[in-house]
Design goal:
It is built from 8 helices and 10 strands. It has 242 residues and is α+β, with helices and mostly antiparallel strands.
Length: 242
């Protein structure tokens, strides 16, 4: 069950507000900016909540505002990884290539549950449906393998950026998917060799790669990928400062 501290935070922490003109952005993406993200400290302890908009403004990030996130890596039975290209409508990192699904658990009871990362798993399944049309009935929460967390900061442009404690979730399963156009511009399946080639030639091909995906690829993914059936769970308690 959700901790008493988190319940008190739910009741007592009002959202902050900042005046930033969003009129030039896509209407659907602007609506999502009102979602309430989970604020954490550097040890991933919940300290409050704020809007997705405020969490992604560089003016707040530069003051230390930090929120919880997750990155899903979906592999098929052949061991290939599904990548997505973020839609041009996205407010942060539009058109960038990245892992299967990247988003945030929200400040609601079912996604604040820390035991066995249940809240993050619930949010990951929710967003796989929202971005890729994957039927949530096809995925049990315990089918996600949680590996570790990374803490990173990355500007998107002069206004927006990311500052996250990011949970890394692997899932190996053959599932049907239909990308949602407002979220995902393109997808591709890659082998380890194909991903290495993509990363090595991205600049000359004019492909942009999200900073969190780049960090995970450069520091972790290939050693995990070699052992998809026997993943190393020894770093689950760690938050890697990147």
């Amino acid at each position: 069950s959700i901790c008493t501290h988190c319940l008190l935070l739910l009741q007592r922490c009002p959202p902050n507000t900042m005046s930033v003109d969003l009129s030039s952005y896509d209407d659907e993406q602007v609506k999502l900016m009102a979602e309430e993200c989970i604020l954490v400290d550097g040890d991933d302890k919940v300290v409050g909540h704020d809007s997705k908009k405020n969490c992604h403004l560089m003016t707040n990030i530069e003051k230390g505002l930090l929120h919880r996130a997750f990155s899903v890596f979906l592999f098929n039975s052949e061991g290939k990884l599904l990548l997505q290209q973020r839609a041009d409508e996205k407010i942060t990192f539009p058109g960038y290539w990245t892992n299967t699904c990247c988003s945030h658990p929200l400040y609601r009871p079912e996604e604040l549950e820390d035991k066995d990362q249940a809240g993050v798993r619930f949010a990951a399944r929710r967003k796989l449906e929202h971005e890729l049309g994957i039927n949530p009935a096809e995925i049990e929460l315990d089918e996600f393998t949680y590996l570790t967390r990374i803490h990173y900061l990355a500007p998107s442009d002069g206004t927006w950026g990311e500052h996250e404690v990011d949970y890394i979730l692997f899932l190996q399963k053959d599932v049907a998917f239909t990308p949602v156009a407002n979220e995902v511009k393109d997808t591709r399946w890659v082998s380890p060799e194909e991903l290495k080639e993509l990363m090595a030639t991205a600049e000359e091909q004019g492909l942009k790669i999200t900073p969190w995906f780049k960090l995970i690829v450069e520091n972790f993914i290939f050693k995990w990928w070699e052992k998809l059936g026997d993943l190393d769970l020894s770093q689950q308690d760690m938050v890697h400062k990147m």
